[in-house]
């Protein structure tokens, strides 16, 4: 499938940087503009992105430039570099007098920014599949989580949805799952209560931007003797310590807000390994299904 080369070069320039939602909005605007982005003034870019001009300046600084003029110079250099062999051969043909090359009839249209984001997320899932070729870490995590009574599951802010989703399904096979999806002064109390009730492990979903309360809660858990299993978006995240069992799953950053398809999929894989380690898992599921049918919970 043919991809808009200028847009892909711009995406590559922005990758690897931690950008705020406002800064991502600017980046996406530039990607949509393609090769024209290198000729926009900071005021024009701000108007197109619907942000303030100082936000554009801060965006350039966040990418490591002294200001927007330096970023624009880099953009012009990047977009001037011929990296598309098809485009290069077409240009050579035109220079030789052959005239402009006609696009092939079967050539697909360029991917738009939304399609590019989906393709990036698919790449993250493929990366996760490669990591799961070594089944040892996720199997160990499943055994440890299955053995913890109760099982506290931590996820704050952006990761709260992951913690709630995992806990909803885990509660169907595990006798005591406690979701911790709200910060505040009571979070440490709830961890202490879980330890007092017999918990041995904590599952944490840690996604950017990492709340300070997550690091504080993990310190409390470790000090109380809990083992920590962390689903995070990489090997080098600020809340992970050497004794933790880390399971990485990349977060997508191609849209204004993060996408977490790979962490969600990894959570479901963890559930599967938990079911394998829980002798009564199938019986619990069958009891739930029977009770759900009696109560008419579902339409199908």
Task: Outline the structure in words.
This protein is α/β, with parallel strands linked by helices and 300 residues long. Helix content is 55%, strand content 8%. The chain has helices at residues 5-14, 21-33, 42-49, 53-62, 68-80, 85-98, 113-131, 136-147, 160-170, 186-196, 212-223, 261-277, 281-295, and strands spanning 151-154, 177-180, 201-206, 227-232, 245-248. The protein has a 5-stranded parallel β-sheet with strand order 2-1-3-4-5, sandwiched between helices. Helix 2 (21-33) packs across helix 3 (42-49) and helix 3 (42-49) packs across helix 4 (53-62). The protein is elongated and about 65 Å long. Mean pLDDT is 85; it is low at 83-105.
Stretches where pLDDT falls below 50 for ≥5 residues?
A: 83-105
Q: Supply the helix-strand structural class.
A: alpha/beta
Strand content: 5-15%
Q: Output the helix-strand order.
A: HHHHHHHHEHEHEHEEHH
Helicity range of the residues?
55-70%
Strand order in space, largest sheet: 2-1-3-4-5
Largest sheet: 5 strands, parallel
The number of distinct helices, counting runs of at least 4 residues, comes to 13
Mean pLDDT: 85
Strands, total number: 5
> What sort of overall outline do the alpha carbons produce when their principal axes are compared?
elongated
Rounded radius of gyration (Å): 24 Å
Oligomer: single chain
State the end-to-end distance.
39 Å
Any key phrases for this structure?
300 residues; alpha/beta; elongated
